[in-house]
Amino acid sequence: xxxxxxxxxxxxxxxxxxxxxxxxxxxxxxxxxxxxxxxxxxxxxxxxxxxxxxxxxxxxxxxxxxxxxxxxxxxxxxxxxxxxxxxxxxxxxxxxxxxxxxxxxxxxxxxxxxxxxxxxxxxxxxxxxxxxxxxxxxxxxxxxxxxxxxxxxxxxxxxxxxxxxxxxxxxxxxxxxxx
Length: 179
Hints:
14% of the residues lie in helices and 36% in strands. It is built from three helices and eleven strands. The protein has helices at residues 7-22, 27-31, 47-50; strands at residues 36-39, 61-67, 70-76, 85-91, 100-101, 115-117, 120-122, 127-133, 141-149, 154-163, 173-177. The strands form two sheets. Strands 1, 2, 3, 4, 5 and 6 form a six-stranded antiparallel beta sheet that branches. The longest helix has 16 residues, at 7-22.
């Protein structure tokens, strides 16, 4: 059984949490020590990366993270309260010289997605997932998983499921499972 939190210990934890929030440390930043925040106001976002994105935003920062033998640049796109949407640009070099927008095939759709929502990273397997919630459509919740493959690190759909239950607790239907 875990000991109860009391007095000074709680105060110290709250103090460190306040410092972390003031410094802009988020749970995502805490999970990924190799991520680099590139500041647009300082001209840190490579021009080839900027040219790849068409989601209609000019974010103040872009995240660069090592992934799949290269680097991904994560560009914030318009979203809503349920979806943190990002375009994913891949380059083999940190300076983005050979940058290209990744597109992600989706089950049952002819066109691939140019942005993903609520991304989770599985770096050891070169995989990433997306969870999208849209309560205004018949299929309210979808989850996809892609693996970047080959010398060009092309996303290949390896898992897709969807449900009409917006809470995601029941009714899942798996359309693709190549894990």
